[in-house]
User: Fold these one by one.
Assistant:
Number 1:
Amino acid sequence: MTTSKLTLASTVEVPNSRAPLRRPNIGFGVYQSPPGVCKQSCLAALQFGYRQIDSAQYYENEAEVGEAVRESGIPREEVFITTKVMSPCGSVEKTLERCRQSVKEIGLGYVDLFLIHTPSSGPEGRKELWQALEKLLEEGGTKAIGVSNYGIRHLEEMKTYSTTMPVSNQVETYCRILQEEWYPSRSVLPSCTGKFLDDPTITKLANEHNVTPAQVLIRWILQHEYILLPKSDNPRRIKENTDVYHFELSLSEMEVLDAMDLGIKGAIVPQNTECP
């Protein structure tokens, strides 16, 4: 991908999917967006040009995501919808039914990507979750399946019980935890708290480009060619997070940000990828 030609409409091919599937390079996250707010935030995001929304059973706002897409008037096939299952239900069939409920609750006929939210349920739980998602894929409830917060050993473990490998591993990423080795195709959740946005290195780059520190980090992630899922319930910031296509970080600037990587020590939630 030539990053200088990136736009909000840019998409990437989803690898290993059974049918051709493309995914926008930037999406809208709804973690901690309460049901009463989530729908309006999603409508704002769609109005500003987002065409991907990332939800989860754990977020308890899947229904509002679906409502927003329907009310937006945007054709279903133009919006990429992701959701996630957190925990196994005791059997593959019970877990499958829980995933079917998510698809029904979203109310758009299918989801584009269904992920295992975390590897924290242990080897047997992870196997049950994956086998349920494989069945959902066969049924047409989702177009692709993947994982989230998986470490290398969790991905290697999957080879012992499945030939269907995840199309993506959604992980925490920002300049203190790059995690480039964890999966060749992934989507990322930028974990940038205020103290990181105030970092002198980041603020210096922001001032030089006349943008915000958050925009610098969003652009940095996009230039690494990862799919990005920023989150906000503030309409101004929702729009601001997409206003990153008028500037480009130089190679030396990218290297400066890359050098801030602390590996797993930089993670805000290292217990996810480190769990047994």
Number 2:
Amino acid sequence: MCGVLDTLVTVIERCKTTDQNRALYPNWNLCNYLAEVAMQADNYKLAFYALEFMAKWIARGEIARPPFLLSVDEGLIVSALTTVGRTYSSNLLDASWAILRRSLHEKRMPSPESFLGKIYAHASLGNLEKAFAMLHEFEAAHGNSINEVEDLFSPFTSLYPLVVACSKKGFETLDSVYYYQLENLNRADPPYKSVAALTCIILGCGNISDIERAYQTFDAIISSFGLTPDIHSYNALIYAFGKLKKTFEASRVFEHMLSLDVKPNAKSYSLLVDAHLINRDQKAALSVINEMVTAGFIPSKETLKKVRRRCIREMDYECDDQVQSLAKKFSIRMGTENRRGMLFDLEFGT
């Protein structure tokens, strides 16, 4: 299939070199089909040409009398942006965003998925300056959204590609983003201050196990930027402490968060569970899960399996029964871990 698509790209490129065939382009439906097939195969060149043909159709419709306005499906553009993240094609990135803006005809802003797709693309290309600039645009467009705003700016999910890019070269990249981008933007006119951006730095510090930088960045949210940490900021700090087996400090952060009336989410409890499990304390982890249930959250299957695994390894069958009871209560099928059990039961000779 890839060979066929590469041949098609060659044919298109040859057609572009002749005056006779340069003005030719497929019909609208075929352009959409070409784009879909190209993105499924990660063929960024064919995807670019398909979008280029669609742009010609849009331009042709705008100058027609009477005009007919064509629009590319935004889901197709999101697919193109994720293709950029996998193929590192800056040309496809520019073309995708340009045709999206043109398709919207200035009637509305791009969807959150489109913004996140472009952030992912810039992060994959290593262009952190443009990635954070796009985050700024994203916050301006959807920062006041009521529905699902918590997940939109979570560094653990939607913004995680940006976190990975920030910590790619360790503290070198993190310091570059903090000192040369976020602090400079803070002094700009008008200033750009973002809790989401700073939280990405905190989680990035946690990824490289640099708790000192993580705490300093958390403190800077209030002291240097004059902002208020959100639930994601606290979660990122809990993660950073927990990863280094600093369970006491992670618990203190959680308690401090509660004292400030910051409502924890399911991720907060899951991270605290992980912090206890790293220290092989399955009883404390189970206690946190019980608090989580009392607060109205349902533990994930992954979290329960982690606790069960620790119970088995510590031969704490009483806690294991409690985990099984919770799984049954919430209709979570835990499954078996026969392969893990075989590895755990191996007796290695000296």
Number 3:
Amino acid sequence: MRINFEEIPNRVLKLYNELQRIVFDKAARNGLFLWNSFEADLEFEGYTIAQFARLHSVPMTSPIWRNSRIGYYGPKGTAIIMHTLIQLFPLTTLTDAFQPLSLRQYFAYFVIPHIACRLIAEDLSISATMNAYKVMVESSNVGELINPERDDDNELDLIKHRTMLVLRQRALGGRTIHDAAKALVSLQMKTPDVPDASVDQSNPRPRAKPHVILYPPKRVAACGASDHEEASENQVCSNTVN
């Protein structure tokens, strides 16, 4: 399986209606497995949401931090999803749906892991969010190793630039999310790769697009209940990474 980082913004756009609800309607997150898991981690660490909102940073030893990492997509995937979310919902957005958390905190500790579980479930044909969450947590150390966020990552810079361009044009032109998704695909097909400044460009040669070969964990639990069924049975777990 290859991780196509260029496709991540489009995959996020496909979730736009759901994301809009959980950003603007507090009730929309009720019963969602990732929100319940976040609350369970807060309780385990002895925080209320208000206390957590006042923290400037979260220790890397905390299950709150460990369980917010997005598995084999790594920090690079996190950066792409966060950038896409901020283009869709600027950090100046004000609603009571995520307060007292800041919108960035809400994205980092709930919305991005929620999206990652959706992507992992789609990648591996997993129907239950709990099982996708387990894969996410167990593959996070590998993700940090093979997909870091680097300052010199030309692919990451290009993905961010394309996403910002298309979504700003959408906002200015009154386009729908569907229109923006199509425009982003078109731009991906037409825009050449960003040249590497360390390579002699006087005799350029075509380069293969970077990709990662993913071998998913062999142990994945059988498909279980939906988010709401899991919530009703209190099947909330706070997995940690060894």
